[in-house]
Amino acid sequence: MEVEQKPNDLSTQKFPLPVDSEHKATVFRVHSFAPPHMRAFHISWISFFSCFVSTFAAPPLLPIIRDNLNLTSTDIGNAGIAAVSGAVFARVAMGTACDLVGPRLASSSLILLTAPAVFCSSISNSPVSFLLVRFFTGFSLATFVSTQFWMSSMFTARVVGTANGLAGGWGNLGGGATQLIMPLVFSVIRDIGATKFTAWRIAFFIPALFQTLSAYAIFFLGQDMPDGNYSKLHKSGERHKDNFPQVLYHAVTNYRGWILALTYGYCFGVELTVDNIIAQYFYDRFNVNLRTAGMIAASFGLANIFSRPGGGILSDAVAKRFGMRGRLWTLWMVQTIGGLLCVLLGKVGSLGASVAVMLVFSIFCQAACGLTFGVVPFVSRRSLGIISGMTGGGGNVGAVLTQVILFRGSRFSTETGITLMGIMILCCSLPIWLIYFPQWGGMLHGPSSKGTTEEEYYMSEWSSTERNKGFHQASMKFADNSRSERGRRVESAPAPVDQGTPSPGV
Hints:
The chain is 67% helix and 2% strand. The protein is mostly helical. The chain has a single domain, classed as Up-down Bundle (Growth Hormone, Chain: A), CATH 1.20.1250.20. The strands form two sheets. A two-stranded antiparallel sheet has the order 1-2. The protein has a two-stranded antiparallel ribbon with strand order 3-4. Strand 3 (436-437) and strand 4 (441-442) form a beta hairpin. The radius of gyration is 23 Å and the shape is globular. It is a multi-pass membrane protein. One of its GO terms (cellular component) is membrane.
């Protein structure tokens, strides 16, 4: 339900973009910086971009760093695992923090807390210290959760997939951009007169400074919700302070969140894994120089400029016609094709063919990430932050497990590991078939014959006592605005019946 901005309507007069009943923007204008919606979009993706640059600043310089610190292949593998493992719990914690204190404070605090680790990368002098700085820097990747939470709080159901896809995709660009940035910065510093073992250390000051500045931008320019920051809304009584045990309970007992976490583990988790291994893979297997290997590796991450956003846009597009069922079918198909391409990438043996397959694989892998977060906002209204954190954390768990099993030490060659990783993608995509929303249906079945409504589904997260106090009203607005997930059936959507008692089994 879109709210028209009439001149005498003071509740919506302050928003430059058209909004719905929750004051979420109903359009997405990427060229705009209008507060609070589009401003939140731009500062969120830029800050997430800076965290990606920091976390993956080391891989493109590994041929130099490993000689300086005498790193073995096991040391390098362990450091790569450390870089993505720290964010596993940090992402779940970030989701919780977003639910309780808002994305602005949660995100800016984490970015500032992890920036010192990036600065300390320049003084690493042993395999252990190198592993530790990568571990603590990797915590910053949890800002992805605040980014997705923020977009889901600022944009309505019809465009939330697009907003999430663009914010996440452009943030993930940092994984590709750093493959170009760090070798270039290293070369400039070395050409000025520094030795190569000094130049790589100085180079780390660039991502560290960038990350620090982005934290201040979030804090001073950001806004938690369309109507203001959490602190203001709590004081005014417009938003109640939620009961954390209840928020957690409704998140962990919703099986849809766990399936999406697994799915994300083998699209975004694979992307993280490739960011860690791909430059060294081309450097070692095809004997290309450091800069060429960095450029090839960068092309994988830089595909995020359109691939992940494309997944989000595609999710919204199919939902207009086929609703939630269309989102799920498209997610499964794109993820499966990505798995097949990953298998093929490990099989091809020439440089040109490997680059070509890698590029196509990157598009499907990253589009699946955008498609996943086209579904996430609808799993739960009350526990959106924790569900987002669980899903985001699943991406890091997938990266850790994949690197431990396939790319740590010399158990498998890198090309064999890539092929096996593709098989894991195919297997971990199958549970998407089990996701079912009683009001919308799933891949195999349509909506429940009981006639469950959106209001009943989202109201089931609130007790009768909480409903009597009116705590569920925001969920009711969201339910009304998410009726478009019925697809073409939205025109014949029945009006909600009794909003006091949710149907059993929702």
